[in-house]
Design a protein that fits this description.
Elements lengths: L1 H8 L15 E4 L4 E4 L5 E7 L3 E8 L10 E7 L6 H17 L4 E10 L2 E12 L2 E12 L2 E10 L4 H14 L1 E2 L10 H11 L7 E13 L4 E12 L5 E7 L5 E6 L4 E2 L1 E4 L2 E10 L4 E11 L10 E4 L2 E4 L24 E9 L3 E4 L2 E8 L2 E7 L10 E4 L2 E7 L2 E7 L7 H22 L6 E7 L5 E3 L2 E5 L21 H8 L8 E3 L4 H21 L1 H18 L17 H19 L1 H14 L3 E3 L1 H8 L1 H11 L1
Parallel strand pairs: 11-21, 27-28, 28-30, 31-32
Antiparallel strand pairs: 1-2, 2-10, 3-4, 4-5, 5-9, 6-7, 7-8, 8-9, 11-12, 12-18, 13-17, 14-15, 14-18, 16-17, 19-20, 20-25, 21-24, 22-25, 23-24, 26-27, 29-30
Length: about 625
């Protein structure tokens, strides 16, 4: 039976009879599924086959060969639907066959539709020489399968079609399975294994209140995070999935009055809450976990724990949603307000994002509190160590340079660094919009390069070399070049204030800050320098890329070098800038940064803002 249904799904959706239904909504009572038409001049053509029900809806007078149509496919399996198996089958047997050599997978996201687990797939290609994009939602309801397929011919304005398709997606109604019960941790774990994907969680976390206690003797960080939860689903729930970065070990979870049971599999733990939480109600619990370091930083240079200092440059806070989708792209989550509290040796200090609101030292320990301000960072980074601080204020921007005893730059070197940061900050503010941040913190760490976050730079040590003679002036390693500082400061806007999500998230995260560095050098050093840097980026792309036609929008950052994302990404942005014109391009960037402040930005947002001309030029780089 399973093979028969999969074989039926592998065919091209087509109506099984010629009946045309001119109605605002198509409803199938047997399946309990209804869907509205996107526009008033569209009609439904329903049909029933031996194993599936297929409904095509399209403009009344348009032929199907124009590829402007959508389809609803309903089927029943003999056992609970394995979403990943069905999606893989349709990709291999349907879309690769239909689209042939033009087939390109743009995204595959694990999401929820009407409260049910689903996979959203976005593809592009050509059918009978008609270029199109296809957006498909594969939804599981027990043993029932619902597929919604939406086609976007590229010869028509995508925006106008998308308006109607959004009406379809928003109006899709799927009757719930009988007698829904709150999901328990074992049941959720079993459903993940059965479906082959991690379903979207019903929870949102608007507030994190974290306490980090560091033991410099053992190079150990013990962390307690109180997470405020809101049940954003339509069903009650009594458990929550918690994702932790693999370097951390979960110790326990606690409610208001008692410890909470939990079950851990890999980096995901299922925690049973004290009681059932109804839809839109709130609760909270505290997660206790730790990490132990040593003389070397932990994997990927993102977390360093040593007796001399520590830095956290990764997503170390527990997440109640999967951070990445099945295509390795960033998933949109609630942007949380973050409070960071630190318990450190008395000689140490914490350097974090936001504002330092308290600093108290007593009984051999120091306690500090940092709070995020009006700009909510997508990633909460910080550094710990025996820091001293030097402050430089100029042009309304305060630069605080935090150094350890291992650092010994001269006052002119600190002045030079602060001046470069202030110039880079003013440039980004003019291009991407001023932010309510008036202080940039710079902390020396053991990182081999500079990493930028919201108003925070973590960089390698600035250490004086041994002078060749007592009378000579000490030599210092060169400060980070101006372009690197602009690139990393631009991540305050591109990656934190406006964080990328979905298809193209890796490209947006790396390419726009890299472009900002080239644009800044063009402003300060002339357009000739800018053109030379663009040519160098294009040459680097041609050297690094095994195939110049490989798309960038689908590639997860973990699978592609940052150099390739920056070089080809800069080439793509420059091509779009020339197509849109300088004035339209700058206006689009400013509007994108302002309108998506403290929110998420997607590839579609960028294509719409740049306009059809720039979008047409940009697409070959991405798809």
């Amino acid at each position: 039976m399973l093979g028969i249904v999969l074989a039926m799904l592998a065919g091209v959706p087509a109506p099984q009879d010629t009946t045309t239904l001119d109605a605002p909504v198509y409803a199938n009572e047997a399946y309990g599924v209804s869907v509205p038409r996107p526009f008033d001049d569209w009609v439904f053509e329903p049909g029933v086959g031996p194993q599936t029900t297929t409904v095509i809806f399209h403009p009344r007078a348009a032929p199907l060969r124009a590829q402007l149509w959508a389809a609803l496919i309903l089927a029943t399996f003999p056992s609970p639907v394995a979403l990943r198996q069905v999606t893989d089958q349709r990709e291999a047997a349907t879309w690769r066959r239909l689209l042939g050599r033009t087939y390109a997978l743009l995204a595959a996201d694990a999401i929820a539709v009407d409260g049910l687990p689903a996979i959203r797939t976005l593809m592009s290609g050509a059918i009978n020489r008609v270029a199109l994009d296809v957006e498909e939602y594969t939804i599981a309801r027990g043993s029932d399968l619902i597929i919604l397929e939406l086609r976007y011919p590229r010869g028509l304005p995508r925006d106008s079609i998308a308006v109607g398709y959004r009406r379809v997606i928003g109006g899709l109604r799927i009757r719930s399975a009988p007698a829904p019960q709150p999901v328990t941790p074992p049941a959720l774990a079993d459903s993940v294994a059965a479906a082959g994907v991690v379903p979207r969680s019903p929870w949102e976390a608007p507030v994190y209140d974290a306490l980090v206690r560091y033991d410099d003797q053992e190079a150990r960080a013990d962390i307690a995070v109180r997470v405020e939860l809101v049940n954003a689903s339509r069903l009650p729930a009594d458990s929550v999935a918690v994702w932790l970065w693999p370097a951390f070990t979960l110790d326990s979870a606690r409610g208001v009055t008692a410890n909470l049971g939990h079950r851990t599999h890999g980096s995901v733990s299922w925690v049973r809450l004290p009681g059932v939480v109804q839809p839109q109600e709130a609760t909270s619990f505290t997660v206790f976990y730790h990490a132990v370091g040593g003389d070397r930083p932990l994997p990927a240079q993102l977390l360093g724990l040593t007796p001399a200092g520590a830095y956290f440059a990764t997503g170390w806070l527990p997440s109640v949603q999967p951070v990445l989708d099945s295509a390795g792209q960033t998933v949109q989550q609630t942007r949380a307000r973050i409070i960071l509290r630190f318990d450190l040796p008395q000689e140490w200090r914490a350097v974090a994002q936001g504002r330092l609101t308290s600093d108290v030292a007593s009984l051999g320990r120091r306690r500090m509190t940092w709070r995020t301000g009006d700009v909510t960072p997508a990633l909460a980074a910080f550094a710990l160590g025996p820091y001293r601080v030097w402050t430089r204020r100029e042009h309304g921007v305060v630069v605080s340079v935090w150094l350890t005893p291992a650092d010994s730059p001269s006052s002119p070197a600190i002045d030079s660094l602060a001046a470069s940061i202030q110039a880079a900050w003013r440039f980004c503010g003019r291009v991407f919009g001023r932010l309510p941040i008036d202080e940039v913190n710079v902390a020396a760490t053991d990182l081999p390069d500079v990493r930028g976050f919201a108003g925070l730079l973590l960089m390698g040590h600035l250490t004086a070399r041994t002078p060749p003679s007592p009378d000579s002036t000490p030599e210092y390693p060169p400060l980070p070049v101006f372009g690197v500082l602009v690139r990393e400061l631009a991540r305050t806007w591109w990656g934190n204030s406006a964080a990328p999500a979905g298809a193209g998230s890796a490209w947006m995260l790396e390419s726009f800050p890299a472009w900002a560095a080239i644009a800044a050098k063009g402003v300060f050093q002339g357009d000739t320098v800018r053109q030379r840097l663009v040519r160098e980026a294009e040459a680097t792309w041609h050297t690094l890329s095994p195939s110049r036609d490989a798309p960038l929008s689908l590639v997860a950052a973990s699978e592609t070098s940052a150099d390739l994302l920056r070089s080809k990404g800069v080439a793509a942005i420059e091509a779009a800038r020339r197509a849109a014109g300088e004035a339209r391009f700058r206006e689009a960037l400013l509007l994108l940064a302002v309108e998506h402040r403290n929110s998420w930005i997607t590839l579609d947002d960028i294509l719409v803002a740049l306009g059809p001309d720039a979008g047409a030029v940009l697409r070959p780089y991405l798809f």
